[in-house]
Amino acid sequence: MSTNDLEKRLARKERDWQSMIRITHDFFHAWRKSVKDKGGEAAAMEMELAFWENVGVGTGEMYLKRGGKPEDLEQIAFTMQRASDVMGETAHMQKDGKDVLVVHTACPWLDSFRAAGLPNRCGEGCDRWFQVTAKTISPKVRVVTESQLPKGDATCTRRFSLIG
């Protein structure tokens, strides 16, 4: 296989992955709209947060099942930053003393919530996912949101720290 053929295949896989990210967002918003149409906005918000809570429990359980250390802040933050990368978000982590920050500088959820008529509403779900994931991994891990893109901040920044 030539280098040109390989580059074309890789470009195609990248386009397909980006399409899959958009499709999953569309599925999420169609599901949310269905709940809203049947039960109203309050029910939709309640179910949206329950959705992210379930995803957080699953993420935390998978982390532990794969041998993740329950109180290794750097490993936990890296895992969550990596999950963000896979979902098309732009994120990095950095140390701040004993704490670890996960910093998002761009996120496709902002656009998909806006397209669904829910501008600047993605932060609550992400907060729930981060907090529940951390709590599932260890009750000693705390995640605090310090800034949010949907609130007009330059980043979504979450601080991971150990309690006690």
Describe it.
- By secondary structure, this protein is an alpha+beta fold.
- α1 packs across α2 and α1 packs across α4.
- The chain has one domain (3-162): Trafficking protein particle complex subunit 3 (Muramoyl-pentapeptide Carboxypeptidase, domain 2, 2-Layer Sandwich), CATH 3.30.1380.
- A hairpin with an 8-residue loop joins β3 and β4.
- The protein has a four-stranded antiparallel beta sheet, with helices on one face.
- Helix content is 60%, strand content 18%.
- It has five helices and four strands.
Radius of gyration: 17 Å
Mean pLDDT: 95
Structural class: alpha+beta
The fraction of residues in strands falls at 15-25%
First-last Cα distance: 56 Å
Compute the number of structural domains: 1
List how many beta strands DSSP finds: 4
Helix content: 55-70%
What is the name of the CATH class? Alpha Beta
Q: If you consult CATH, what is the topology?
A: Muramoyl-pentapeptide Carboxypeptidase, domain 2
Task: Provide the CATH superfamily.
Answer: Trafficking protein particle complex subunit 3
H/I helix tally: 5
Shape label: globular
Contiguous runs where pLDDT drops below 50 for at least 5 residues: none
Describe the largest sheet: 4 strands, antiparallel
Task: Tag the structure with descriptive keywords.
164 residues; single chain; Muramoyl-pentapeptide Carboxypeptidase, domain 2; alpha+beta; 60% helix; four-stranded antiparallel β-sheet
Briefly say what this structure is.
This protein has 164 residues and is α+β, with helices and mostly antiparallel strands. It has helices at 3-39, 41-65, 73-86, 108-115, 123-137, and strands at 90-96, 99-106, 141-147, 156-162.
